Amino acid sequence: MSAPLPLEGIRVVEMTHMVMGPTCGLVLADLGADVIKVEPLEGDNTRRLVGAGAGFFPISNRNKRSIAIDLKDPRGRDAILKLVSTADVFSENFRPGALDRLGFGWQALSQLNPRLIYVSHKGFQDGPYAHRVALDEVVQMMGGLAWMTGPPGQPLRAGSSVNDIMGGMFGAIGALAALNERHRTGRGRHIAASLFENTVMLVAQHMAQHAITGEPLKPMSVRVAAWGVYDIMATADGEKVFVGVVTDTQWGVFCREFGFADLADDPRIATNTGRVQSRDWLIPELQKRLGVFDAATLSARFEAMGLPFAPIVRPEQLFDDPHLNASGGLLPISLPDGRKAKLPALPIALDGERPGVRLDAPKVGEHGRAVLAEAGFGADEIEALIAAGVVRIAEGWR
Q1: With a cut of 70, which residues of the chain have pLDDT below it?
Q2: What global pTM score does this model have?
């Protein structure tokens, strides 16, 4: 970016893995923080995931530096404690008590560095479930999100790690709030973000609906629609396009531009409420009329009218999306095998500019020497740690 990033000068020590904790670090790193990823000597296990997990590490770890170190060795622990003494934020997502046993719990680190903001990414906030192991799919099931996503009686997880990603964002929000508070108090805080409570936030609209109506909730696939026309239409070329007509004004525009005078004059569907009540015959009728267009034509017609629409897109098609490519929404990165690709930027702009890539996702221990030197270690001390196998300086991704 042409101007300094907002978090330049902020140092984050990150002991996280998988998606939730690394997402918190990604947000802070993209906004300019120096995020130092502390990994075991063999590297974060997330690096070695395959299948649906193959993209976790590359998307969540750009703009970070890596140090690979043995925390079971007192020399390794002392080195990272020395690093933490220089940090503004410490981020972790280990099971409760795991880091306390290593000397990296909140109480120990806040005594070492009273200005430290300590961010814990947890499955649950304190309470009866706090001891449970949580994963994104676990909390989607127990938090009602899977129930609202799938067909009736067939709970289905959302098609992304929505709680991990959003939970990491809440961790970053908490860290930013605590950094601002520290200007007044001079002291850090312990921030806890959690997967289960994040899921509950996502279904809050449905809970509020039930509180208001008193009626049992139906999954989104069979919900009582809020709008008369809010549907996916099959097109003549075998594609599908989502169309939305959500106000009475839009309904008038829609009918006029498509020449549907008979529908515009039908008093049963003159209002959105009437169209909701008439969906059983209205949607099949619109499908018959709109189904004669191919997807590109139908999309162009809706765009010209200024009405909501969306072609149905698979994630792999987004690499060629003209808007993302023109707006800086896709960032150039290097994959683990050295090939080049484009992955999404943070969905924010700073004075019209998108935060970019300063560093590719690091190799295991790629920045160990530099990080230790910045923590105050001399060259001989660093080489001794490497020679003793306490610190690994790797040449490869895994």
Answers
A1: 395-398
A2: 0.93
